[in-house]
Amino acid sequence: MTVVTRLRYTAGGYHDTDGAAQQACVLLILVGYRMSGPEDKSASLLQREFFPSPRLLLGPGPSLVHPRVLHALSAPLIGHLDPEFLQLLDETQAALRQIFGTTNSFTMALSGTGSAGMEGVMVNLLEPGDTAVVGVNGVFGSRLATIAERGGAKVIRVEAPWGRTIDVETIRSTVRRSGPVKLVAIVHAETSTGACQSLSEIGRLCHETDTLFVVDAVTSLGGIPVQVDAWHIDACYSATQKCLSCPPGLAPVTLSPRALAAMRRRRVPCPSWYLDFSLLADYWDESTRRYHHTAPISMIYALREALRLVLEEGLENRFARHRRHGRALVAGMATLGLTPLPLENERLPMLHCLTLPTGIDDQQVRAELLRSHGIEIGGGLGPLQGSVWRIGLMGESSTASNVLSLLQALELIWLRRGWRCPAPGAALAAAASVLDEGPTIHSERSTP
Ligand code: PLP
Predict the structure, then answer these.
(1) Percent of the chain beyond pLDDT 70?
(2) Which of 13, 52, 363, 407 has the most other CB atoms within 10 Å of its CB?
(3) What is the rounded CA–CA span in Å between residue 393 and residue 390?
(4) Section 21-34 average pLDDT
């Protein structure tokens, strides 16, 4: 095990070395795995350091993490009120503003996963008796509605079939006839179905009717445009483990001046102390910097590095990369008989919800992908369980070679089981024809 550990540290910096050294490191690590794997696994758990098997993360999250982010995680700790750390917070906020497309001063990363962002926004903006209009077309819209109801709000659900998007006109008529509506909440990228909701018109409607506009950008941020200011979004939250390619544990959030004013007008205090945004602002605001809870220091290091990678690549390049690889995946999957659930013009490029042909055993194939190929993909949620796969090409996971590796593994499984596919290599060829339109496979890394 010592050998593996030492090699892993060596590999921590492999992106700075030349290609040959990189490959040698990776090879040695793999050899190390093989040599130490079986014996270690029979040892008592706590007698060995945990080091996971290599995995290609192509599920709905977490996505792969760049070595620079892993390296940042291992930096020595400093205090959460240390001036150097406070400088890091400022830089993280500035980068988040750029990626959210906002000048909102209230822009921060909450301690907790995307659900902390969801719950935080809803409990800070809603009070008992308020009316909330919530778009529900999958698991995450439904969660938004549940959280609002638990907080005592009157919730009006505007529903759409799973896989479809919410109709803007129905939101408009619902807001108009439902008396004063405090907020409209909607999921931008519905991870349970792969549907992409367009937001700008709903934002305009909310702006005109003095209604707050809440957007879940957990899966979309960093993968497709999120324009908080231009789309009149008042509260937007995300998560680190999707298109930002950072481990799970933080929820970036931004609030408009209108949302802050609504918080100031609250009749009763926010029922959550830990997620009370007005208290958290006292820590993140550079004029106060008051202790609230101990910041997850290493996660902030990691997020800052992940955001640096996003900005180095450039948002437009990153969006184009997600689109290109999404199209390649869909083209390859079509040859195996898998079709996207959402309509073409409502499809996400980073999360593909694909309907399985009859006769394919969902769980068996996913288990074989993981066991024999080290590839993770996701199954369906709720009513879609067993009938769809959810494949994520998010952030660092969105590369041409990952698309091809997955298709190759699936082709093998298909051929071995005698399932229908046009010819060996057809899925790869279909994907390659899309990839050929873009940069070469080796030059398309997201980052230098
Ligand atoms: N919202 C959406 C759209 C999601 O996809 C998820 C998680 O996948 C969440 C909210 C909840 O995020 P987390 O699991 O990080 O708490």
Answers:
(1) 88
(2) 407
(3) 10
(4) 42
